[in-house]
Specification:
alpha/beta; FAD/NAD(P)-binding domain; 2 domains; seven-stranded mixed sheet; 13 helices; 24 strands; 23% helix; 19% strand; binds flavin-adenine dinucleotide; secreted; EC 1.1.99.29; GMC_OxRtase_C
Length: 571
């Protein structure tokens, strides 16, 4: 019966800023010790009241809602100067409340690379297994034999994980075409350390419903802990330093309720932990005078400590969708264009949590490497050289139209979206000098490096080979683009630049490094403390130093699990 060390409504041992993937893990794990008090400040609302966040099929309907920060990327030369959205969750649960739920750990070599970079083998693939398993409750369906490796998975973690349980027409031609075209060998489990090939896709879905950071890590039992306070609608606006402290010490967070306009301050007795994500963590540091001096000054803010790596090294997976028309009317386009059908399926989902809406339009996931003799390697060294398990790109086949452009009024489609998973393009996050408190300037750097566009070109041509497989003739699969572009690098590049989006898997804007790394190369040390100041840690996607060879959610979850142990051991 140890009383929490919460001495008032405004003073806590830890103040965590941001209740997304990382913040929810930390709030849960740190309050396992009932003598430690935690305030979780979240800018968005509680994760209740929107069915789109729960029913997997309709998740993308949240994209334009108030559960999204609705950021856009600055015009990208690599995307023919288009301005495209950069989605981020603005709700308890963060981006895990609005994301595509794809559950990927990445290749073993990703984790071994981080371990070598940090000189700390506790980060390697084998040693991270306990965290992967701690995150996951894998729930196999009755038909899933041979579709995953049971020894790979956790069975009692907060995040429910499952495969698509809907028996759709597309499953058979997908696997047959992979075989006939020779493009992808079957891989029984892409989460066993080697994702290369085609596998059954794993989703953060349990019982037909989204499993998010909020539903998993902040469930009712956790919320009932007296040493945890969750305060929603509270956007941290600035960290305030203790006057005269040396090294400069931060213990106070200023926040604003964007609904009522009310402002307030809270204090952390031990640490402020920033978990506001890859865009808002660097933005908050910059607004607090912590970042590259020139960027801070340009925004009219007094620089306090020069931290050159804040907001730099931003890296994400540019994504390129492309579509084929098919002659079956069994694609999910039928649901999207027919509200009566959608409502029938929603009734089924409401009644029994079964049916087409229990999953997205994806069922398989494909990871590939460029051939070692690809011409680009004459001029660019392979970022994944010698790592047979590390994909250069990914392809996701959807049972419907998935282009950014509106779906044609008639017809049925299958869409393949390609992600460049080992990008060499880099971008940045800075404050807008015209409005430093408003949306940051997000420069994804998309397709600014020739390697990335080469990779996507190769990926699309590989997909075209996949669609030439005999099985697709049954469905009269026809490209919804001029097939001549496949024979011209410049025409294909034009397609890619006109149709790609900037990504959803950004990392590295406050990256972790060794304790004794050269000054300014990273932002936090191995203990997740911001270097050069006292009282602030960062734990979220922004600390992940390299672009993951898969989607980013699981890496963030397990980094946060590991960080929680490090913080508990070294409070
Ligand atoms: C549309 C979309 C689709 C995606 N699909 C997938 C997928 O299928 N699979 C996958 O693995 N990954 C996917 N991702 C990526 C994955 O969701 C993120 O990498 C992950 O959630 C990042 O975790 P985080 O804790 O760093 O940030 P987030 O989960 O984004 O959480 C940050 C939280 O901080 C809050 N916040 C921000 N600023 C402040 C502030 N100043 N004060 C208080 N709170 C603040 C935000 O509101 C948010 O709740 C997707 C992301 C998006 C947006």
């Amino acid at each position: 019966n140890v009383l929490p060390r919460q001495t008032s409504d405004t003073t806590f041992d830890y103040v965590i800023v941001g209740g997304g993937a990382a913040g929810a893990v930390l709030a849960n794990r740190l309050t396992e010790n009932r003598s430690v008090s935690v305030l979780l400040l979240e800018a968005g609302p509680d994760n209740t009241g929107k069915i789109e966040a729960v029913v997997p099929y309709i998740y993308s309907r949240l994209f334009g809602s108030d559960w999204n920060w609705n950021y856009t990327i600055v015009p990208q030369p690599g995307l023919n100067n288009r301005v495209v959205p950069y989605f981020r969750g603005h709700v308890l649960g963060g981006s895990t409340e609005i994301n595509g739920m794809t559950y990927t750990r990445g290749p073993a070599s990703d984790w071994n690379r981080i371990a070598n970079y940090l000189g700390d083998q506790s980060w390697n693939w084998n040693n991270m297994q306990s965290y992967f398993k701690k995150n996951e409750q894998f729930v196999p369906g009755t038909n899933d034999n041979g579709r995953f490796l049971s020894s790979t998975h956790g069975t009692s973690g907060p995040i429910g994980v499952s495969l698509n349980q809907v028996n759709q027409w597309i499953l058979e031609p997908t696997l047959t075409a992979a075989q006939q075209s020779g493009v992808w060998a079957f891989n029984q489990d892409n989460n066993d350390g080697d994702p290369i090939g085609i596998s059954w896709q794993q989703f953060a879905i349990k019982g037909g419903q989204r499993s998010s950071a909020a539903t998993g890590y902040l469930n009712q039992q956790v919320r009932a802990r007296s040493n945890l306070k969750i305060q929603v609608n509270s956007r941290a606006t600035r960290l305030v330093p203790v006057a005269g402290s040396n090294p400069l010490t931060f213990s106070t967070v200023e926040y604003k309720n964007d609904v009522t306009g009310a402002t307030g301050q809270v204090t952390a007795r031990r640490d402020i932990i920033l978990s506001a994500g890859v865009i808002d963590t660097p933005a908050l540091l910059l607004r607090s005078g912590l970042g590259p001096t020139a960027d801070v000054q340009a925004a009219g803010i007094t620089p306090l400590v020069n931290l050159p790596a804040v907001g730099q090294h931003f890296v994400d997976h540019a994504g390129t969708p492309i579509a084929w028309q098919v002659n079956t009317t069994l694609t999910d386009d039928e649901i999207d264009k027919n509200s009566t059908l959608l409502n029938q399926l929603l009734d089924e989902w409401n009644a029994s949590k079964t049916g087409r809406l229990t999953t997205t339009s994806l069922a398989h996931i494909q990871f590939s490497r460029l051939p070692s003799n690809a011409s680009i390697f004459q001029t660019v060294s392979d970022p994944q050289e010698g790592k047979a398990d590390a994909p250069h790109f990914e392809a996701l086949l959807a049972n419907k139209w998935t282009l950014l452009a509106p779906r044609p009024a008639t017809g049925n489609f299958v869409g393949m979206t390609h992600f460049c998973l080992s990008p060499l393009s880099r971008g940045s996050v800075r404050l807008n000098p015209q409005n430093p408190q408003g949306a940051p300037l997000i420069d994804s750097g998309s397709l600014s490096h020739p390697f990335d566009i080469f990779t996507l070109r190769y990926a699309i041509r590989q997909t075209a080979r996949f669609f030439q497989a005999p099985v697709w003739r049954t469905y009269n699969a026809q490209p919804v683009f001029d097939p001549a572009i496949l024979d011209s690098d410049s025409a294909l590049d034009e397609y890619i630049r006109n149709n790609s989006f900037g990504g959803a898997h950004g990392v590295a804007t406050a990256k972790i490094g060794k304790a004794n790394s050269p000054a300014g190369t990273d932002v936090v040390g191995p203990d997740f403390r911001v270097k050069g100041v006292s009282g602030v840690r960062v734990v979220d996607a922004s600390v992940i130093p390299f672009s993951p060879g898969g989607h980013a959610m699981v890496p963030v979850y397990v980094v946060a699990e590991k960080a929680a142990d490090i913080i508990k051991a070294n409070p």
